[in-house]
Specification:
Length: 102
Amino acid sequence: MTAGTRDEAEKIVKTAVEGRVAACGQISGPIASTYWWEGKVQHDEEYLILMKTTKERLDDLVKVVKETHSYDVPEIVAVPIEGGLSDYLSWIKEQTAEQPSA
């Protein structure tokens, strides 16, 4: 996903990780984005956010992003993890597991 400012990107990542709907969030940028919006081609500087979660927690992550993001239609796309270091994939699952209520 993208965010319009670094502060907003950091807020989104912090909220998602603290809420355990993402195990990790990374912010890159600024990046240059060109896209259609409201009938015109737009050019903006944005920050790219990558977050790691499980398929089971994706809907919860989307909900958190929509509640935290300032965009009317935030860019949220999911790319499946086809493989990786098994210890790292286990870590993602452990960190995004729903926590028992206290």
